Amino acid sequence: MTVTYRPLRWWDLSAARELERGLFPSDAWTVEQFWSELAQPSRTYVAAVEAERLVAYAGLSRVGTDADIQTVAVATDQQGRGLARTMLQHLLEGADAIGVTHTFLEVRADNVPALRLYASLGFEEISRRPRYYADGSDAVIMRRPRPQAGS
Length: 151
Ligand SMILES: CC(C)(COP(=O)(O)OP(=O)(O)OC[C@H]1O[C@@H](n2cnc3c(N)ncnc32)[C@H](O)[C@@H]1OP(=O)(O)O)[C@@H](O)C(=O)NCCC(=O)NCCS
Description:
This protein is of the alpha+beta class. Helices cover 29% and strands 35% of the residues. It has one domain: Gcn5-related N-acetyltransferase (GNAT) (Aminopeptidase), CATH 3.40.630.30. A seven-stranded mixed β-sheet has the order 1-2-3-4-5-7-6, sandwiched between helices. Strand 4, helix 3 (83-97) and strand 5 (102-108) form a beta-alpha-beta unit. Coenzyme A is lined by residues 23, 72-74, 79-85, 107, 111-114, 116-117, 120.
């Protein structure tokens, strides 16, 4: 089946909430948090849909020349198919095109798949927040500079 990428919309939010509950059990966003995100013009959210099912989403916020990856989530049974890479490339290329020079994110230090994904997209660790998460895990702060023209 074919995956289609399009903006995340309000009618996706109950499905997004269900994905959140499975993927981030201790700090899943509520539907209200998603509404707040979609209401802000500084946010860009992409959805991956297959056979009318929301299978993944990712979001970016922009302030001036900086941006932050807000979230990346791929349904467990859809992981490893390149969905996260495709969504993030789309968001990063969009940010590059509108003048963002640095994109930041934070990720759990024990989230090996996410750390590898981000490194492969040009993110580098710049600092750590010890015991940042409720379960005592460290947060890794990563930054990606906009690629130089031609690189
Ligand atoms: C992390 C996550 C977003 C990756 O999504 P995905 O669609 O499976 O990732 P992709 O298929 O696009 O893989 C891209 C790269 O990620 C890395 N990666 C993905 N799964 C991996 C795994 N199980 N082990 C190691 N590296 C992995 C690899 O570098 C991979 O590149 P490659 O295929 O060329 O080796 C997904 O596992 C997920 O939703 N996890 C739960 C939520 C989460 O942790 N979100 C991030 C919070 S910061």
